[in-house]
Amino acid sequence: MIYLDYQATTPLAPEVKAAMTPWLDHYANPHSPSRWGREAAAAIEHARGQVAALLPAGGQVVFTSGATEALNTALRGVTGRIVTLATEHAAVLDTVEWLASQGREVEVLPVGADGLIDLDRLRNALRQPTALVAGMLVNNEIGVIQPISDIAQMAHEVGALMLCDAVQGYGRIAIPDGPDLIAVSAHKIHGPKGIGALWIRDGVTLEPLLHGGGQERGLRSGTLSPMLCVGFGAAAALAGERQQADATHVERLWGLAFDTLGPGWIVNGSTAHRYRGNLNIRRPGLDAARLLADCRQIAFSLGSACASGSGRPSHVLRALGLSDAEARQSVRLGFGRYTTEAELVEACTLIRDAAEAQQRFAA
């Protein structure tokens, strides 16, 4: 199997596995005052520092079960009007939809054909009193990078907070200055599943999403897993060390994919403002679901893993102005640190040949 689904999840780094393994047998509760408990707590604090090292200064990292919990904590932890974008992850859009059903005022802004926000539209939306603006740094389906610093500045000018879903950008590109709340996840940077974090700027207060023992600064109750926290920290440290090398490798793979796939493909979303490890493309007349079945030896996707199997066209691609038919002609190839050039060439050759075979038989 050739793995090209890096936006869904990433392979666990060997260094991360090695850091986590000792904690399988170290079973003490990190919130216990025993010596073993204090050792576990110290390991968690070290990991917290490693995660925070890739985030802005002047804030605190609160561990969560993942980015979905982090985003819910931020969105539900404030009161007042929320403005967000039509291309956000379901963890944001479904949450604000629920909040709207509870009487909260919500506005979801459209994006352009390139997937980027129209800042004039945002400025107009912020003429009404607003508590929070939510925007994704790197889109999980199309890889488009939003102007987060500009969005945050505009939010601050009207007294609103800015929440950034940085899950797909954290550890891959620099996190811009400006956000007050940042959600991140370990399994997108070669760490374990089941652990994420919410970075909260100093001075920002939220209502807790979970109540109980008051762990995690009183904001997120529940017993932390030292093994998962240590894994997240190790993955963050490794991402920081390898960020430039990973970016160079991904840039090379991006060009190689285009060369191998050949003509006839259209990139969905901006190519200038984009993380290069996400190649979302379509081909007129292609049945993308059939292509997925024809290339079973390759792991790639039709869009977000969270929406797979729904049967609905991607809400992100529809937000770009694509028709349902065009959205169903689209596939997402995701590659990164452990993707070899030989693997990518083999996979793209198989995809190209299968797509061309479809067209020949349809003619």
Describe the structure.
There is one protein chain. The protein is an alpha/beta fold. Strands 2-8-7-6-5-3-4 form a 7-stranded mixed beta sheet, with helices on both faces. Helix 2 runs parallel beside helix 7. The protein is globular, with a radius of gyration of 21 Å. The chain starts with a strand and ends with a helix.
Please give the structural blueprint.
Blueprint: E1 2-3, H1 14-20, H2 35-52, E2 59-64, H3 67-76, E3 82-85, H4 90-101, E4 106-109, H5 119-125, E5 132-136, H6 148-157, E6 161-165, E7 181-185, E8 196-201, H7 226-261, E9 266-267, E10 278-282, H8 288-294, E11 298-299, H9 315-319, H10 324-327, E12 330-334, H11 341-362
Shape descriptor reads globular
Task: Report the CATH topology name of the largest domain.
Answer: Aspartate Aminotransferase, domain 2
Q: Provide the β-strand percentage band.
A: 5-15%
Oligomer: single chain
The CATH top-level class label of the largest domain: Alpha Beta
User: Helix content range of the residues, please?
Assistant: 25-40%
Count, helices: 11
pLDDT < 50 stretches: none
Task: Give the topology string: H per helix, E per strand.
Answer: EHHEHEHEHEHEEEHEEHEHHEH
Looking at CATH, the homologous superfamily of the largest domain is Type I PLP-dependent aspartate aminotransferase-like (Major domain)
